[in-house]
Amino acid sequence: xxxxxxxxxxxxxxxxxxxxxxxxxxxxxxxxxxxxxxxxxxxxxxxxxxxxxxxxxxxxxxxxxxxxxxxxxxxxxxxxxxxxxxxxxxxxxxxxxxxxxxxxxxxxxxxxxxxxxxxxxxxxxxxxxxxxxxxxxxxxxxxxxxxxxxxxxxxxxxxxxxxxxxxxxxxxxxxxxxxxxxxxxxxxxxxxxxxxxxxxxxxxxxxxxxxxxxxxxxxxxxxxxxxxxxxxxxxxxxxxxxxxxxxxxxxxxxxxxxxxxxxxxxxxxxxxxxxxxxxxxxxxxxxxxxxxxxxxxxxxxxxxxxxxxxxxxxxxxxxxxxxxxxxxxxxxxxxxxxxxxxxxxxxxxxxxxxxxxxxxxxxxxxxxxxxxxxxxxxxxxxxxxxxxxxxxxxxxxxxxxxxxxxxxxxxxxxxxxxxxxxxxxxxxxxxxxxxxxxxxxxxxxxxxxxxxxxxx
Length: 456
Known about the structure:
Number of domains: 2
Distance between the termini: 20 Å
CATH architecture of the largest domain: 3-Layer(bba) Sandwich
Structural class: alpha+beta
Radius of gyration: 22 Å
Number of strands: 17
CATH class of the largest domain: Alpha Beta
Strand content: 15-25%
Low-confidence stretches: none
Helix content: 25-40%
CATH topology of the largest domain: FAD/NAD(P)-binding domain
Order of helices and strands: EHEEHHEEHEEHEEEEHHEEHEEHEEHHH
Mean pLDDT: 88
């Protein structure tokens, strides 16, 4: 490439793709290793880079009052490929950012294939990378190949932690009964690319809701006895597991009816199932929050009890897969290096962050750290007052090593902010979040500027 030794990135998911992009954008060659299609996984369906598995949502895009929305904005300002590709393949989702899965993956793949400093190599990296690879980012995600996972476990002397992730089903839009269902966003909120009518809503009265919950509890489920004791991640619970926590749990969770009015009755329903657009054509919608481990035949039977979905045809049924992650506060340095073998950095969900955006964010940082090191510069972490800095600070030292679990970005990870001088009354809620976000973006700007100056 340009005579400089390449940084190797293992894994072509969101984190690995973002890492390779950041490395190349800083003028350093990157070799991106993706084992698909040579070796497949239980969750992926294609060989495209950055394939979205569990959902097509990047969650809230509100950068002023929502921590994940702030992370979106910080990544955009850091020239994120994942955010740029998401923006050009966005589908309506109220105040959230959702994308066309295929278009998004195609855009990421094309950008990396066309970059002159990126080489994509297909095939599994079995076990530890060759010793001559002196700078490696392991971004293999929660579905790390067994050989590599075993090698890392042996190297650290510590078994990886594990949890279950579930996948929600997708239905064909044309099979939804719109005599029962209607389009509306909660509180008619208009988000990016949206109209305030960005979700399909299927209403349930109290009797229908009770029957649905009972069916969820009684239906046969997929069991993984060899993995007994492995917890679910709270942010991706199967719907039937939520139902086991009490009759009203779903009405205060994914089936909450607040902000919605059934046009047939003019009233708020007892409960609602929402579906979010899954592709740019609008021919596919996924059941929001309906991750499940129900057996396939039972999924059709139970979900067709939902008013409006009686004749629904499924493009994809739900599923369950096992994820792994490192005890990063114990095993990784502040610049994501494995303490037991510093030539390895880790990025993405395997580091113990949860969510597409968080995974890509850690990939972004790992790529910048590795490129800076290759350029002879000291890797510089973003300030802890930023979403990027708060997230990496948590997983590399801020979390308790004894109770470490996957974590989404949230304002609880940020350092406290002082009440503005002269401010009267309480300083909390939306006002406090806006102040935290404003501080974060100002500090991020300083960090990006200093990073650019150092590289010149």
